[in-house]
Design brief:
The chain is mainly α. The protein has six helices and three strands; from the N terminus they run E-E-H-E-H-H-H-H-H. The chain has a three-stranded mixed sheet with strand order 1-2-3, with helices on both faces. 12% of the residues are buried.
């Protein structure tokens, strides 16, 4: 009976509720595991997109996923709170910000790189160009890198 047991390492994200999860499934080199992996992929494909990752970077990908969720929720909260102080109704502020994020994410998922998109948005003197410059001046990349590293380390420690 124990020979029939197959364990699949999987990590879905909160998007499962709306069929937009980014589920990580650990790859296996064992032919005996293929059936279990296929079943897990079939199950999790019903609630979003499945990413087959090696165990070498499963923890890093888990940390990256958790950090991405934290980043987006924090960013939308800050953006919408500031918009509300400028008179934008909170529900509109959240909806508009979320749709902008969704649009950019969809463009990236269709093959455009973040660098291409940023370049196309960075016309001198443009609103977006000014925002990008301020983000760069504020050392946001350094803060993001540090926070992402902490999330990835936590994911590795959590399993251990």
């Amino acid at each position: 009976m124990a020979d029939d047991l197959r364990i699949v390492r999987a990590m879905p994200t909160m998007g499962t509720d709306i069929h937009e999860s980014a589920t990580l499934i650990g790859k296996s080199s064992s032919p005996l595991e293929n059936e279990a992996l296929e079943l897990a992929a079939w199950i999790f494909n019903s609630v979003g997109k499945v990413f087959h990752v090696t165990h070498d970077y499963f923890d890093a990908a888990t940390g990256m996923s958790a950090f991405s969720n934290a980043l987006i929720t924090t960013a939308v909260q800050v953006i919408s709170q500031r918009a509300v102080t400028e008179g934008v109704p909170k529900d509109h502020a959240i909806a508009i910000t979320s749709q902008c994020i969704r649009g950019m994410a969809t463009l990236m998922m269709s093959g455009r790189s973040p660098e291409q998109l940023q370049w196309s948005l960075s016309a001198p003197g443009s609103i977006t160009g000014q925002a990008i410059s301020r983000l760069e001046e504020s050392q946001l990349s350094t803060i993001l890198e540090s926070s992402l590293s902490a999330a990835m380390k936590r994911a590795k420690d959590y399993r251990g």
